[in-house]
Amino acid sequence: LDVNVQLDYMSKTIDDFRNFFKPIKNKDKVKIGTLVNEVLEFLSYMINIDSISVYIEPVEDTTIETRANELKQVLINILKNSRDAMIENGIEDRIINIKFYKNSSSVILEMEDNAGGIPIDIIDNVFDPYFSTKSDSNGTGLGLYISKTIIEQHCFGKISVSNSDIGAVFKIELPLK
Fold it and tell me: How many whole angstroms separate alpha carbon 44 and alpha carbon 50?
């Protein structure tokens, strides 16, 4: 693990938070697959130490214009939440499936874990501020709320969550134009 990569990323993250409320920001042209790989590289230590298998199914790697560092923050938050849920639920064979594809107007990125899903009675609240599913004091309830804000207000997209047969599926839709 290259410490300089981590420090550079953390420095950019601090800049991103400092600039979060500035009204004018430049977008970056980025391939969705490259962005996913950069996030996985950043999280590689956590993924390895926690024995998480990550499977990527790129249907079509598309270049989009978006605020790349902010989108990376969202992906990191969702993947870390998946890891926390797998550990908390005692999942031994930990799996995260990532799929990205496009339709006529959007690039869609889906991240699925095998942590058992989100209870149906609270699934509609996971993006609410200060709502947390974590049983200990590690959850502030702000991560998914901030992620939703980033996707909707800074990347002009949509984010949703549903359950599959094995776990939670977070779906991010970003406009092609």
Answer: 10
Residue 47 to residue 31: CA distance in whole angstroms: 22
Half-sphere exposure of 166 (CA within 13 A, CB side): 12
What single-letter amino acid sits at 55?
Answer: Y
The secondary structure element, H or E, covering residue 125 is none
* Residue whose token pair is 């790129």: 58
Beta-strand relationship, 63-66 and 94-102: unpaired
Task: Give the torsion through C-alpha atoms of 159, 161, 162, 164, to 10 deg.
Answer: 100
What is this structure's pTM? 0.84
To 10 degrees, the CA torsion angle through 80, 83, 87, 91? 170
Q: Which residues does residue 160 pair with via DSSP β-bridges, in sequence order? A: 171
pLDDT 10s digits, 27-64: 889 999 999 999 999 899 999 999 999 999 977 789 99
The residue among 28, 109, 118 whose CA lies nearest residue 81 is: 118
State CA 124 to chain mean position distance. 18
